Amino acid sequence: MTTQKQRRERLTLAKTVLSELEEEWIIATQGQYLTVEGADFEDLVSRGSKAKVQTVLSDKQCKACAIGSIFVAAVDTFDSLRVGDLRYNYNQPNDDDMIEYLGRWFSESELRIIEVAFEGNTDQWENGFEGELADDATAALIFHEAIEERACEEEERTGKTPSIGTMLLTAIMENIVKNKGVFVPE
Question: I want to staple 98 with a disulfide (CB 3.0 to 4.6 A). Which of 71, 139, 166, 167 is the partner?
């Protein structure tokens, strides 16, 4: 059950992602959770640094998927997570650690559905989807396809190729705002 405080904070996270997309601090990127150019997390950890993740991310452009973008917004907005609090893969925060951290606001299932809507597939979830969650995953795939279709229409109309990642992440965050803190693929 989601509390009123969690819903308010989810709204804040979604609005922060939208703002950081507009300011180009976040570049919506399919196929990678979070890449931060110029951040050497593993070096900081090996030196025993107590640096905050927020400090490491400041003034750096982040390429991120939906989960990575929400993670960046959460770190920027709510607290003082330290670099040593996370594990790293190829110098980037571990996706399981990001999902666990985001558990303060979203269940793993909710994050999985948001990610399916962004990526347009269920491949990254080895356990698959069952029951009601399978229906939600299907709705998220349809949501994704609708945004892709909108991107194609925009390209035909303007002659310019829009950023599908930006369109998807914007639509997902606007959906969360519209639905008062809950992603409802429609």
Answer: 71
